[in-house]
Amino acid sequence: MGPKKKKTEKQKDFIKPKLKVGKTKAKPENYTDTSFTARSIALPTQSIRKKAESADGGDIDLEHYLSLTRHHSSSTRKEVLNYIEKHLPSNPRGLKEVVTRTIPLITDQAGEVATALVSLLTACGKKQPGLLELHIRPITLFILSAMTHLQPSVRNNSTKYLAILIEQVPEALLTSSFSKIMKAYFGLLSWSLKNDSKSKSVALTSSASLSTVSKKARASHLNVLKNFLSASLLQDETIDANNISSERYVTHPLSAKYLFPSTPQPYSHYKLFVQEIKKSNPFSLSEDNAGTDSTFTLSDLDTLSSEDLDTRQKIMIDIFLGPLQRNLKDIVKEAGDAGREANSCLQVLQDFSDKQNPSC
Fold first, then answer.
1. Is position 185 within any domain?
2. Cα gap 336→222, rounded to integer Å
3. 189 part of a folded domain
4. Within-domain flag for 33
5. What distance in Å separates the CA atoms of residue 335 and residue 332, rounded to the nearest whole number?
6. Number of domains in the chain
7. pTM of the predicted model as reported, rounded to 2 decimal places
8. Distant-in-sequence, close-in-space partners of 282: CB < 8 Å, separation ≥ 6
9. For the ranges 17-31, 78-92, 112-126, 242-256, which has the lowest average pLDDT?
10. H or E element at residue 181
11. Domain for residue 146, yes or no?
12. Phi, psi of 120, deg, nearest 5
């Protein structure tokens, strides 16, 4: 019986089972299911992304919160900006990332986002002195874009960011973008640099069609303009003893001229690596090219550098002073908050004129 049973068991291995219709083949006992697919593998305890250390000692996922600044909801963007302000990173690299990732919100249309962003940029500038100065070019670029934006809400909030730069880094702002900001102000307030009847009628029509919100914003624009003119034209060229240590001048009074410059890109006004094509036509008899060799014209603004105070004062006298006084006097006649701010701007211009002509 032994050999027969063994032979029968061997034959079972070669017997093909008969399958019924509609039935699948039976799976072996050691079968492993490999039909599943995985898009990603989650390793929550092995994240390679480093968290930023906030000023209060805790760690926050800075990358996550900065990504939420592009959220479609304005309330979410506002809350994220407020949260980042309360948990600013302590290292300079994190602060740089915050400024770089949030300045595109300067052109955001939501007023609540603008208020939160102004507070955040102010806090960043106070936490690390010189931070806004290092990013003065991109910040100014977004501010100019906001001042000439199509949406009125963006234009109304544009000078709030300019006020931050005037308060914290006025020298860097004036040396790099004085002429551009003055031109943008004329477009923001619907002013014209030409003195003709057509320009006056356009200015009067634009002023009459302003809404209540725009009129309040115009008063704010004029307040910032007053501070901008004061910093641009009435500053003293003498070196501030509080900002520069006397130890730098122990060897010689001119020792500072041979030390490292205190401003970034000190030779940018030479435009050594910039290729420009002159736009003005020397054969044109238009008003823009009607100036003499010693007088600046509108066509010269794109090539002029405002590094020093004398150049800014000459640009103001040759190009902007007359149109500024003319348009500000028109706003003074309207009275109200805008009229008071316009009168303050005229007082700054009068002080500037008296400083230029002390004998008068």
1. yes
2. 12
3. yes
4. no
5. 5
6. 1
7. 0.71
8. 289
9. 242-256
10. helix 170-188
11. no
12. -65, -45
